[in-house]
Amino acid sequence: MAFDHIAVLGAGAWGTALANILARNGRSVTLWARNPAVAAAIRESRENARLPGIPIEDRVAITERLADAAGADAILLAVPAQALRGVAIAVAPGLRDATPLVACAKGIERGTHKFMTEVIAEAAPTARPAILSGPSFAADVARGLPTAVTLAAADEVLAAALAAALGSTSFRLYHSTDIRGVEIGGAAKNVLAIAAGIVTGRGLGSSASAALTTRGFAELFRFGKAFGARPETLVGLSGLGDLILTCSGPQSRNFSFGLALGRGSTAAQATGKLAEGIFTASVLVDMAQARAVEMPIATAVSAVLDGRLSVDQAIESLLTRPFRAEG
Question: How do residues 225-236 score in pLDDT, each as one tens digit?
Answer without folding.
Answer: 999 999 999 999
